[in-house]
């Protein structure tokens, strides 16, 4: 079900009884949900309403271990089998609602959280009570939260970051949590709820940045210059506050330009944010600088589902945008001989559900979890994630190129909403692109113009990393199976769906 109070009540009540909770993304495809339900051996399923249950109905016969379906709102039709409305299922009258089944083993299994499946079938990450609570406690020790704080919960609670940092952490601190109606309503909910803390994935900041850039393209020249001066002034002010430079003339202008320009954008984010956290994927430094330059206290963190999930995070007083911060208290990190970032500590999972082979591949005999990310540590202990070990394209000429870095650079141009770079085994790189429909209306869209525009963003890359051909395609969404519920591109699925288009980009080569 979508984020709502009953999601949290069900979660806490079930785990207090020693049961294992398996969260599902409410907008995921039925086939993906069924895979998880079968793999986890789910016995009880809670859904928001019968409409959601109907999408699963054709697959229910496969779920032999499923004993009960509880529908929160409305009633169940007779065709749904072992289905009951929550109002009929829950005890009637006055009850002692919270009943703890003895002392729960801190090392006992609390939840199975399935990976997003960007490179293969999702794997069930086994997280204990200790994993979850130690991580929330350590994150709270790094970044304080207060009883007068209000979090806005809009990332799905089935996402490990939202569940730990946006649910358990504010519980520990006694904060208020408001539940958004979902991403389509986020702008309105921000204005109405006026949160003080916002936890997000980079895609949300990318969208806001793209919307602003689209409006600036049609704004008068003086307004564009004022906006640019505001961002530059705010950035100088931010760097001075961090103790990394003296206060230049631009920084001195910040108190004057902030109310003229920056306040208007911050007002759209509710006007009360004292902290915004970006995690779940890398945030483009250009976009980070954009928001910091407008006075948004934006910090970046790093983590994985397998680490429950937070490994590190910057703080407002020690905010190095090119890094993902220092490790949380009690979390150890190291860079091994291959440059891989490894993590050890109380928040690291016990393994993958019914998959000991996959577990052995990522957790070594000393208990270090191998993240698959290439990392660096600076003198102050800040972590810098510099790429993925396996996400490398090797062209026919033997050149090795990290596609994620190239895609991130191209996405800095607001014309491009989504990009996937291909070229494995071919003599040059090509790209599948989804265009921002609002901006694309006034732009020349032939292939040569698109390629030139993409390569304008790739000056810092070697020449062999330039894009030679490109094709525009329809948007990639969760519904069409090309995005994960956390809005990450499923590379394998996109390449498979557009294999004929990709082949055309290499005709004659």
UniProtKB/TrEMBL annotation:
SUPFAM superfamilies for the chain: Acetyl-CoA synthetase-like
Catalyses which reaction(s): a long-chain fatty acid + ATP + CoA = a long-chain fatty acyl-CoA + AMP + diphosphate
Assigned keywords, A-Z: ATP-binding, Ligase, Membrane, Nucleotide-binding, Transmembrane, Transmembrane helix
One function term, GO molecular function aspect: ATP binding
Transcription found in the keyword field: no
One Pfam entry name: AMP-binding
PANTHER family documented for this protein: AMP-BINDING DOMAIN-CONTAINING PROTEIN-RELATED (PTHR43272:SF33), LONG-CHAIN-FATTY-ACID--COA LIGASE (PTHR43272)
Protein name as catalogued: AMP-dependent synthetase and ligase
Organism of provenance: Magnetococcus marinus (strain ATCC BAA-1437 / JCM 17883 / MC-1)
């Amino acid at each position: 079900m979508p984020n709502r109070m009953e999601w949290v009540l069900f979660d806490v009540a079930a785990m207090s009884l020693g049961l294992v909770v398996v969260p599902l993304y409410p907008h995921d495809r039925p086939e993906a949900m069924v895979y998880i339900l079968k793999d986890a051996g789910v016995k009880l399923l809670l859904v928001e309403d019968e409409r959601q249950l109907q999408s699963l109905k054709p697959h229910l016969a496969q779920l032999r271990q499923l004993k009960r379906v509880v529908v929160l709102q409305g009633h169940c039709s007779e065709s749904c089998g072992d289905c009951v409305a929550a109002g009929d299922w829950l005890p009637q009258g006055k009850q002692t609602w919270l009943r703890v089944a003895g002392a729960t083993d801190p090392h006992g299994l609390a939840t199975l959280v399935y990976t997003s499946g960007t490179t293969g079938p999702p794997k069930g990450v086994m997280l204990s009570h200790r994993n979850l609570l130690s991580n929330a406690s350590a994150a709270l020790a790094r970044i304080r939260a207060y009883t007068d704080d209000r979090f806005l919960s809009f990332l799905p609670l089935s996402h490990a970051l939202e569940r730990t940092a946006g649910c358990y952490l504010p519980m520990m601190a006694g904060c208020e949590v408001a539940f958004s109606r979902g991403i389509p309503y986020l702008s309105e909910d921000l204005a109405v709820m006026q949160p003080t803390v916002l936890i997000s994935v980079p895609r949300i900041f990318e969208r806001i940045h793209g919307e602003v850039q689209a409006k600036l393209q049609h704004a008068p020249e003086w307004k564009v210059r004022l906006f640019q001066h505001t961002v530059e002034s705010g950035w100088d002010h931010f760097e001075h506050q961090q103790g990394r430079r003296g206060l230049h003339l631009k920084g001195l202008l910040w108190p004057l330009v902030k109310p003229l320009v920056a306040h208007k954008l911050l007002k759209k984010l509710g006007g009360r944010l004292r902290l915004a956290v970006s995690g779940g994927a890398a945030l483009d430094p250009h976009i980070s600088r954009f928001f910091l330059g407008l006075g948004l206290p934006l910090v970046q963190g790093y983590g994985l589902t397998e680490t429950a999930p937070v490994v590190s995070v910057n703080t407002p007083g020690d905010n190095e945008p090119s890094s993902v911060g220092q490790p949380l208290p009690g979390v150890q990190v190291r860079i091994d001989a291959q440059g891989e970032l490894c993590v050890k500590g109380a928040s690291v999972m016990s393994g993958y559900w019914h998959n000991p082979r996959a577990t052995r591949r990522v957790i070594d005999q000393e208990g270090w979890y191998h993240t698959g990310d290439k990392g660096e540590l600076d003198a102050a202990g800040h972590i810098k994630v510099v790429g993925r070990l396996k996400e490398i394209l090797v062209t026919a000429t033997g050149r090795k190129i990290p596609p994620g870095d190239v895609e991130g650079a191209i996405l800095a141009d607001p014309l491009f909403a989504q990009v996937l770079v291909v070229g494995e085994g071919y003599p040059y790189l090509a790209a599948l692109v989804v265009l921002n429909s609002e901006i694309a209306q006034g732009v020349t869209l032939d292939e040569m113009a698109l390629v030139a525009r993409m390569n304008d963003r790739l000056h810092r890359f070697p020449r062999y990393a330039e894009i030679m051909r490109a094709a525009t395609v329809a948007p990639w969404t969760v519904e069409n199976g090309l995005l994960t519920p956390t809005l990450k591109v499923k590379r394998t699925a996109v390449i498979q769906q557009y294999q004929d288009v990709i082949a055309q980009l290499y005709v004659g080569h």
